[in-house]
Amino acid sequence: MTTPLHLFNSLTRKLEDFQPVHAREARVYTCGPTVYNYPHIGNMRAYVFADLLGRTLSWKGYKLTHVINITDVGHLTDDADAGEDKMEKMAAERAQSIWDIAKHYTEAYWADVKALNIRQPAHWSVATDYIDEMLEFAESIADKHCYELESGLYFDVSTVEDYGRLARAVTEEGEGRIDTVEGKRNAADFAIWRKTPRGEKRQMEWDSPWGKGAPGWHLECSVMSGKLLGFPFDIHTGGIDHREIHHPNEIAQNQAFCGCGSLGEAANSGARIWMHNNFLVERSGKMSKSAGEFLRLQLLMDKGYHPLAYRLMCLQAHYRSELEFSWEGLEASLTRLKRILMGVANTKARADALPKEPEGGWTLGEAHDRIGGALLPFLARFDEAISDDLGSPQALTVFEEVLGMKKMDPVHKLQVLAAMDAVLGLGVMTLDRAELRIRPKGVATSEAEIEDIMARRKEARAAKDFATSDALRDELSAKGVEVMDGDPLGWEWQL
Ligand code: AMP
Ligand code: ZN
Q1: DSSP string computed for 239-302
Q2: Low-confidence stretches of the chain (pLDDT beneath 70)
Q3: Domain 6-142+218-281, CATH 3.40.50.620 — does that match?
Q4: Whose CA is nearest to atom 8 of ligand 1?
């Protein structure tokens, strides 16, 4: 009745059967944001993907432990160990403390997480809370795998087997990277501790056996994933850019720490499966956080789009495909979401009771136990789609097929939809159609005011007083409200 879960492992480059390390459990680590600025919607695609994975594991009955980290130290402006710490740089530019910067942008990120219906992980692990553990980890591998230079402690990538297997283009140069630090043994060697240059003072620095300084970026993820999930854990996720440098370096550290050999055995990397979402791209290249107005979720909302329309846009593409962002695409997703909500509302109107959510949420097993007969094959097809490396586009189609079924008992139908939405996370059982009508920034007219004029216009039309009706329509138009008579989706007006 359940389809085995197949996931694409970037390390082996194969679809693999998900076999948990611990029976009936799933332990997942997701590389989180560097909180020096607002996340753009591309960044948020990475977390919608990780959330879809987590929800799928829960749906299939695994007890999920998900960790997402918050990087508040160590991420340099250049991945190849050059440049400044992103956090230090932003703090200096803003003349603010790093801690204030981190707090502000962590909260902004969490607001986006909430708006996109991304479930709370078991742990939000903050890098600066793990400095002692990072020092311990570094000390334990320093003798055998590291060497010291003027600027810090470096990891010698030739001391572990199969360095860089995860990356696509391994070359002698170490994935085509530039050897920017004088004295490195191999181009791909990376700092695990960065010493504060003599005569300088960083806002964030700690004592270490190698002098005052701060951890290298890759160290935190090895340490927090190992501490919170135990090596090897099940799945490690991130965006595809991490497949080239950050994750190969995490893997090398994990191999050193665990005393593991070849990556022929995937678990020697610290995780059994490494998964990467492809990028959200934008033709005009505005995704960058450094450009003046960049695409963040708030901008979408300011323009009047509900954030879950963006979630749906993400789900419409497979996570391993590039997704091109456009306003037209977002508009289409919003329309699709409206249709879905209209279908749910109509079904609810026909049902004499609403389905009760099982304790602990809907799972495939729960759905099977409660839902019988004609709807079971849909459940099976939905499961098949999502079990095929998280086939959300196909799963959505099955969801909509159920929505479109006419002669089905409405309560059963709602149960199936609610169960499927436990995976999709569109909030269709609780989201009200009216909530999709977000007011674009700068529109002052209140909803009550619009509804009042709309009601008066209806009365005038009923009384065949077309002069008044037209005048009211003009009044609305002057307020930026478009009246939508005869809209097939039943929307009477839009801003
Ligand atoms: P960062 O805060 O830069 O460490 O990025 C947070 C997450 O977003 C990482 O998993 C990145 O791989 C991912 N990411 C960055 N840009 C994009 C993009 N345009 N589309 C999808 N994911 C992205
Ligand atoms: Zn990471």
Answers
A1: EGGGGTTHHHHHHHHHHHHHT---TTSGGGGSEEEEEEEPPEE-TT-TT-TTSSS---HHHHHH
A2: 1, 79-83, 168-179, 285-286, 288-293, 489
A3: yes
A4: 43
